[in-house]
């Protein structure tokens, strides 16, 4: 029987093959890579280049001296922020709004996407999708304007309706206990329709044969949703949840700022509006940068923590 001899692989075989693969990909998809240039330039210029200014969080920044010449103060701004009486109030208000948004607003696109996926009449489905996408394209100024028209204490349609039914005239725009529900409802109305796009795209990959097989086996509509639809979008849901957790301390400046007034300020002040008031209005650039850096660090920690937990629960889930 003839002996089989194994050839010793060349020393640079892997390197050559990798270089050849990269060359083939570049030649084949060079125009696609060229399309990446505007996006890469955008992130380099507007996202990464400004990170240089973060060092003013550790300095007493004076515009006339510049970043380099401004005196170094170390962690003094962070110490002042954490020891200030505003810190706990801002943290509480921000976390309340964020977690209410995650608990109420985050599941809304998922629920709506499942409902749209069950519609079989394509014309009606497209009409509904078009209608629910429209609020996303409205600016927060218009949304807040509509809110003031509907909920104004003087002639607001919703206020008049509540008074007619319950006999009580409620000032929704001024009473602090109504601020958070108003913010969450605005977010749901504006963002739910647009948020369904990514979940509908995930559901589009589900083979219709799975639903047909389930129907043959006698599975009802809710059984099909539970055993086919939800597992199909589970990885997408996990990834979106991870990304949402990274912005827990970012409640949105425009909406909060426009809805804030002197009567609801106790529950309306969040980190985003605080950075504006301290940094722009008062000119404390270093202090406001320290607050912004704190928000970013918390966001990174939450993203990594949520991703780690997601991988422990389901190895197929996770972002990294």
UniProtKB/TrEMBL annotation:
Question: What GO CC terms are in its UniProt record?
Answer: plasma membrane
Q: Where in the cell is it found?
A: Cell membrane; Membrane
Record-linked InterPro entries: MetI-like, MetI-like_sf
What topology in the membrane does the UniProt record assign? Multi-pass membrane protein
Identify the residues that the record assigns to the ABC transmembrane type-1 domain, covering every copy: 91-306
> Its GO biological process terms?
transmembrane transport
**Domain of life of the native organism:** Bacteria
Kindly give the Gene3D superfamilies that the UniProt entry links to this protein: MetI-like (1.10.3720.10)
User: Which PROSITE patterns has this protein been placed in?
Assistant: ABC_TM1
Q: Which Pfam families match?
A: BPD_transp_1
Mind listing the UniProt keywords for this protein, alphabetically? Answer: Membrane, Transmembrane, Transmembrane helix, Transport
The record lists the membrane-crossing segments as: 31-49, 95-116, 137-158, 178-204, 225-249, 285-310
Family membership: Belongs to the binding-protein-dependent transport system permease family.
UniProt protein name: Putative aldouronate transport system permease protein
- Name the species this protein comes from: Amphibacillus marinus
Instruction: Cite the source lineage.
Output: Bacteria, Bacillati, Bacillota, Bacilli, Bacillales
């Amino acid at each position: 029987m003839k002996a089989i001899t194994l050839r010793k692989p060349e020393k640079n075989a892997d390197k050559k093959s990798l270089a050849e693969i990269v060359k083939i990909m570049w030649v084949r998809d060079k125009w696609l890579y060229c399309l990446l240039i505007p996006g890469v330039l955008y992130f380099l210029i507007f996202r990464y280049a400004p990170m240089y200014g973060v060092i003013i969080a550790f300095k007493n920044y004076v515009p006339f001296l510049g970043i380099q010449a401004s005196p170094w103060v170390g962690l003094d701004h962070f110490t002042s922020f954490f020891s200030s009486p505003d810190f706990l109030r801002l943290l509480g208000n921000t976390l309340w709004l964020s977690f209410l948004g995650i608990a109420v607003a985050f599941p809304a696109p998922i629920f709506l996407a499942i409902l749209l996926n069950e519609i079989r009449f394509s014309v009606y489905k497209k009409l509904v999708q078009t209608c629910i996408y429209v609020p996303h394209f409205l600016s927060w100024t218009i949304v807040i304007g509509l809110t003031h028209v509907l909920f104004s204490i003087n002639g607001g349609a919703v206020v008049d309706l509540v008074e007619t039914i319950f006999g009580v005239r409620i000032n929704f725009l001024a009473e602090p206990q109504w601020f958070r529900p108003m913010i969450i409802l605005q977010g749901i109305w504006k963002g739910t329709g647009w948020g369904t796009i990514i979940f509908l795209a995930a559901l589009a990959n589900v083979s219709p044969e799975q639903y047909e097989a389930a129907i043959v086996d006698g599975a009802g509509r809710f059984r099909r949703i539970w055993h086919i639809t939800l597992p199909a979008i589970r990885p997408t849901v996990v990834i979106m949840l991870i990304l949402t957790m990274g912005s827990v301390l970012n409640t949105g400046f425009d909406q909060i700022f426009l809805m804030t007034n002197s009567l609801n300020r106790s529950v309306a002040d969040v980190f985003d509006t605080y950075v504006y008031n301290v940094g722009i209005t008062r000119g404390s650039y270093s202090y406001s940068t320290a607050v912004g850096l704190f928000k970013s660090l918390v966001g990174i920690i939450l993203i990594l923590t949520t991703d780690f937990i997601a991988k422990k629960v389901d190895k197929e889930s996770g972002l990294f």
